[in-house]
Design a protein that fits this description.
Blueprint: H1 2-5, H2 11-34, H3 37-68, H4 74-102
């Protein structure tokens, strides 16, 4: 909802969030070999924060696209599908990181 209703332009944080996501992937691969519990928790909380930001960024990007492109056009239809896919992936990944935080580890 923040990405839809805010007047602040979130395009400037998009590049930062993508780089943070790449860093998160690298940290996850490193933690596969280190098996550090502390790094696991840092990655989990950082993942939630990054995907909250990406959800807001993608929501605003979809809103801007909907104002610029006609919904019935081919570009509008493709943009709607790509926007839905981006939000779907944001929500799924955020859910996975929340499960890592609140789920029981054996």
């Amino acid at each position: 909802a923040y990405g839809y209703f805010t007047k602040k332009d979130l395009t400037s944080i998009g590049g930062f969030l993508i780089m943070a996501l790449i860093g998160l992937i690298i940290a996850t691969v490193v933690n596969i070999f280190l098996a550090s519990s502390a790094l696991y928790w840092v990655i989990s909380y950082a993942g939630v924060a990054i995907f909250i930001g990406l959800t807001a960024y993608d929501t605003q990007k979809i809103k801007k696209m909907s104002l610029e492109v006609e919904a019935d056009s081919e570009q509008g239809k493709k943009g709607a599908v790509m926007g839905a896919l981006a939000l779907y992936l944001d929500f799924i990944n955020m859910f996975i990181f929340l499960l890592r935080i609140f789920g029981n580890r054996r």
